[in-house]
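Annex B. Sample input.
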Amino acid sequence: MTALLVVVIVAMLVGQQLGQPIVLGFVLTGSMNAEPANMAPGDGFVAVPPSIAGDIEEGDVVTFEARELQGGGLTTHRVVDETDEGYITRGDANPFTDQDGPEPPVQESQIVAVAFELNGEVIVIPRIGQVTLALQAGFSAAASALSGIPGLDGLAEGNVGSSMVLVGLLLLAYSLVAEGVGGTSRRSDRGDRSRDRRSEMSSVLVLAVILLLITVPATASMVVPSGTDDITIVSSQTPSSSPTVIERGGSVEYSYNFTNDGIIPRIATVNAASTGVDVANSSLIANRGETASTTVTIHAPEETGAYVRSVSEWQYVQFLPAPVILSLHAVHPFVAVAAINAVIVAVVTAVYVSAVGLSPFRFRDRERELSFSDRLRRILRRWR
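Annex B, continued. Sample output.
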């Protein structure tokens, strides 16, 4: 149960940072705090990707990328109507629709999640968003404090994923140091359990937390930025200065840039995802802070009209040699992601098990049998 809670909280932290609800989402305002949803600020809900949820219907509660509401960003409201221009949305506690204000009708491409419903009612998880925001504030404070260390300056920009990886590595380092310093005394105390009350913490659970803190952000950093970019062009009878208006039968070139904002080298694969597209170099490698580029050529057909041209990109953390990653990507992108995660899990687990082992952590708990009132009195005495 504890491990499941850790998974949920970590997923929500990553989703909050990336602007993409993962597993759970939550609301920040009281716009949904009325029948039928009754979601108070900080309450969470199960977030289902639109591709899994299916067609959006009137009555669905959706999370979408607002363009104007409160300056833009993720908004969770209910679909109250569907028009030719898009969806009409409204918070259950709001008297007017979002489109009565400055927000234009919501398009399919803006919807990032659908709230899971059971028997027509949204499953609400009270206050879990408040826990996530508190942890996010803690990560941000830790990132600011550590940003002065050479090589960690990027943490100050609020990259929660990087902060979580750092916390996982620090927890791993702490486990190794604690084992090295206290391992002997811990083993010698096994025969003295009658003298000292000792509590135990599962070392397997600690390992699971470390792996989650490292692999979940790593996976999100590879999967979330990946996808397909669609460009609508117009095949025209005459030349134009607009880069998306191309004389029929002609072509235009543009530079496709890939920037690595992380610490570990990354590799990106850029491929044509439609006809009428050529990519000069489909494999890009960028070290920390570097930008790699390739040339994309878009061709217009002889027939005039509007056409869609698509370019796909997949990003990978380079924990494997580039040729291996590219070979796995050719099989399927998720095969490459799974292989990279397998390497991360194997390395971290090997270091942890070889140095710490899987025996439970034991520590003294002299106050285990004290009542709550006695513990409170002890704490108050310390502050006198």
